[in-house]
Amino acid sequence: MSTVADLAAEEAARAEAEEEETGDAVETEEEQETQTTDDEPEGRQEPAQAVAAPTEAQIEAALKSLEREAERHAREVSKRAGPFLPELHPCPLCFTPGFTVTVPAGAFDPERRQAVMVAMGEPPEPPYKTAKDAVTCDDCDGWGLVLTGSKSANFVTKPCTRCTGSGWINPPVQLAPPPVIAPVFPTVPPAGVPYDPSLPTDQWGRPSGHPHYGIRPADVGA
User: Fold this and answer.
1) Domain count, the chain
2) First to last CA, the chain
3) For residue 196, what pLDDT is reported?
C-alpha cells in the first residue's frame, strides 16, 4: 500500500513530466517559426496575421494546467506555513487558490484596500481632501457612538451627544485676547482755580486759564 508521501511524490513527478512535455512542444513550435522566418528572402515583409482565437481543447488544457498548479501551490503553502497555518484563510478574490491573514482593525494599508475594492468591481475612491472646518470628535473618537454602560443589548451604545452621532465637530475657535484699555482719570484743577463749565477744556479736562492748559500731563508731572 502506498503512503501519502509516495502518492505526493508520484503526483509531483507526473506534474513535472507534463510541464517538461508542454515546454518542449512550445520550444519546438518556436524553432519552426524561427526557421521559417530565416528561410524567407531578405527585405520581404509578410503582412501581420490576426491572432486566432483559442480552441476549446487549448482552453481546457490551460484550465487543467492552472488547476494542477493551484493544487501544487496549496500543498506547498500548507507545508511551509508552519505555525501560521491556522491564521491562513482562503482568499475570496483569487482566481486560483490564494490565502489571506486577518488584519487588525485600522491596520490595513489604504492603497491595498483601494486595490481590493477595485478588484471587486467597486469604483475607486476619489482623492478626498481634509476638511478645514471639521475635526474628529474626541468624545467618541470619530465613531459617532459611545458606550452607555447598559447591560441591555439594545442600549449598549448611544449616539454621541457632542457630535450628535456624526463623528466630527467644528474645530475650536481661537479668540483673540481683548485689547487692554488704559484707564483715563479726569484732571482736577488745582486749588484756587474755580471750575467754570462754560470755559473750553483741553483733551485732559483742564479749563481754559489753567496753568497747564494744553500741556501733556507727562510733561508737567500732573
Assistant:
1) 1
2) 122
3) 60
